[in-house]
Write a structure and sequence with these properties.
CBS-domain, about 230 residues, Histidine-containing Protein, Chain: A, three-stranded mixed beta sheet, alpha/beta
């Protein structure tokens, strides 16, 4: 099956800063380009990332002018970031990055695991080549129903599972896939559903599939043995 890669979805060219870029310049770039984080590079290699959260630490560390809010006692590491004035001190390092050859699923899993909204995309030498965001990944769900159906019928059912086109009716509406028909073996049903779920742009899969042979039960084998015994 064909999956959209990070290289297909990433944004390029990339807004970036260097270690010496000042606090206000970083804040200006985030606002100007409507982004939530920016990679920090040194000789085109990504060394860290500065996010909105990193900048907000400075604001949160200020005393309340009215004296109504309690004073926040930050941890030593957070205190140092709140006092920082350049990307060198503000950035999170090492940076969590993606590779161009990753699938959208791989990038989404890394974002979820590390609780980040954007990933710098780097090549084998850790040089910055793009940025992939949550919004970029969601573009896979803009894929048309007809393209999804074509891939399921041709790649999943016919080429991968060897199921003839007339055996299963495939319907796709707003990314929701329904499968109706019959397969030769019962074990193919969960496999077909799982492979369809992995097609880019699929939101949900429902299946009403009957089977001719239950190869998940020991009964057919026992029945065959019994018949062999009777024949002898």
């Amino acid at each position: 099956m064909w999956h959209r890669m990070v290289s297909d979805l990433m944004t390029t060219p990339v807004v970036r800063v260097d270690r010496d870029t000042g606090f206000k310049e970083i804040a200006k770039l985030l606002a100007e380009y409507d982004i939530t984080a920016v990679p920090v590079v040194d000789d085109e290699r990504v060394v860290g990332v500065v996010s909105e959260a990193d900048l907000l630490r400075k604001e949160a560390a200020h005393l309340d002018p009215a004296g109504l809010l309690p004073v926040l006692h930050a941890k030593p590491g957070s205190r140092a970031k709140a006092d920082a004035t350049t990307a060198e001190g503000l950035m999170n390092t090492p940076a969590v990055t993606a590779r161009p050859q990753w699938t959208a699923v791989e990038a989404a899993q890394v974002m979820e695991r590390h609780h980040v909204k954007r990933l710098p995309v780097v090549d084998e030498a850790d040089r910055l080549v793009g940025v992939i965001s949550r919004a970029d990944l969601l573009r896979v769900f803009l894929r048309g129903d007809s393209a999804i159906r074509e891939e399921i019928c041709g790649e999943v059912l016919l080429r991968t599972l060897g199921i003839p086109p007339d055996a299963i009716t495939v319907r796709v509406v707003n990314g929701r896939v329904s499968l109706k028909g019959a397969v030769e073996r019962r074990s193919l049903v969960p496999v077909a559903v799982r492979l369809c779920q992995g097609v880019d742009g699929v939101v949900d899969v429902s299946a009403e599939l009957s089977h001719r042979v239950d190869d998940t039960s020991p009964e057919p084998e026992a029945e065959a043995s019994r018949r062999t015994g009777l024949a002898t």
